[in-house]
Design a protein that fits this description.
The chain is α+β, with helices and mostly antiparallel strands. The protein folds into 3 domains: 61 residues, Molybdopterin biosynthesis moea protein, domain 2; 238 residues, Hypothetical protein af1432 (Orthogonal Bundle); 43 residues. A 5-stranded antiparallel β-sheet has the order 8-7-6-5-9. The protein binds fe (ii) ion. Fe (ii) ion binds next to loops.
Length: 356
């Protein structure tokens, strides 16, 4: 296992009917599991699974680094399977319909909202935080950003509610606010919303009206929900919009939503930007604590999020796959990963790029 030419790949990549192109070794012991040239059948794969002690990765010999990354199609297949299994795909469709309806009628039809929130609660509310974060962190189609962003902000707000020790009622309220915070964006012209170049100042000014539009659209909702949506772009130092409120005047639901909003927006891939890794995003949130964000809530986020990311697969900046082993909140951008059966401390030149 000290052989640097050994390459980690997911065990699932070994399929019945394919010919092993190289020797395959077990995850921990380095035991030779399959000799190069072996035709894989069910019996062999069953044996490999048991010898691999239920670990999801095996190691191949003699592949170049470029062969390390999981093919994009495989990542896409996994994402779709997880979304189907968890019901995220249904919520995604419901959220699309809901936002379309808002854009068309310029009002919120409770029946449509109820469908989304019921799906969200029924299907995703029971999932573990780790699964929820796999859904949030997956690289999804850029043209579905708005509906996914609303769902993901609701999901992260829900996790924050739990981490803050809030009651189920307050946690559900936070999730609802996450779902609705950007509903005013449905009224922004699609030409601006889907623009792939950097926005002009005039276009950005139009985008900046969306918290007020959310507030107006929510006219039939309790004032605390309306205000929470209105204030989600306020900043702790008073430099946010639309009202330039200082930290103590920003409702706590908004302060939570701002963190979830920024996290999801940064880890998402957009037409005009690369996705940012969860670790680099958490490091940025820490930097913004006190100036833009509520430091106590950032602390809740960065103390609780890492535990849910342990064991997940990441793609490193050299294209190779590794596992998250340990995350130090004081050095949150550079976790320790496992690769080639060995622990590696990531750093600026070898860092985590994306997670799945
Ligand atoms: Fe927003």
């Amino acid at each position: 296992m000290k052989d640097r030419n050994l390459t980690p790949i997911p065990l699932d990549n070994l399929k019945v009917g394919t010919l092993a192109q190289s020797d395959v070794y077990s995850h921990n012991s380095g035991q030779l599991l399959i000799k190069s040239g072996t035709l894989l059948d069910e019996r062999i794969l069953e044996r490999v699974k048991s010898l691999n002690e239920n670990k999801p990765m095996v190691f191949l010999s003699g592949l170049p680094l470029s062969a390390l990354a999981m093919p994009a199609e495989e990542m896409e297949t996994r994402r779709k399977a997880l979304e189907k299994e968890t019901g995220y795909d249904t919520v995604n469709n419901e959220a699309f319909d809901f936002l379309n309806q808002v854009a068309t009628s310029k009002t919120i039809e409770m029946i449509n909202l109820k469908k989304v929130s019921t799906q969200l609660g029924n299907q995703l509310g029971v999932r573990s935080p780790s699964i929820v974060l796999s859904l949030v962190n997956a690289l999804a189609p850029v043209d579905e950003y708005l509906q996914r962003h609303c769902i993901n902000t609701a999901l992260i707000n829900g996790l924050m509610g739990k981490w803050m020790g809030l009651s189920a009622e307050k946690t559900n309220r936070l999730a609802l606010i996450g779902l609705l915070h950007d509903c005013g964006k449905a009224l922004t012209p699609a030409s601006i919303l889907n623009e792939t170049r950097r926005l002009t100042t005039a276009e950005f000014e139009i985008i900046k009206t969306h918290p007020l539009r959310s507030y107006e659209l929510l006219s039939n909702f309790p004032e605390d929900v309306r205000l929470a949506a209105r204030c989600h772009h306020e900043k702790a130092d008073g430099s946010g919009y639309p009202d330039g409120l200082p930290l103590e005047k920003i409702p706590i639901e908004s302060r939570v939503t701002t963190i979830s909003d920024i996290y999801d927006a940064l880890v998402a891939q957009r037409a005009y930007k690369e996705p940012r890794s969860p670790f680099s995003t958490m490091a940025l949130l820490k930097k913004l604590a006190g100036t833009e964000l509520d430091p106590e809530l950032v602390d809740v986020f960065v103390r609780n999020m890492p535990k849910e990311l342990i064991g997940k697969q990441v793609v490193l900046s050299n294209g190779s796959i590794a596992y998250i082993r340990e995350i130090d909140t004081e050095d949150i951008e550079y976790p320790i990963v496992i690769q080639y059966g060995q622990a590696i401390k990531t750093h600026e030149a070898l860092c985590c790029k994306s997670m799945y």
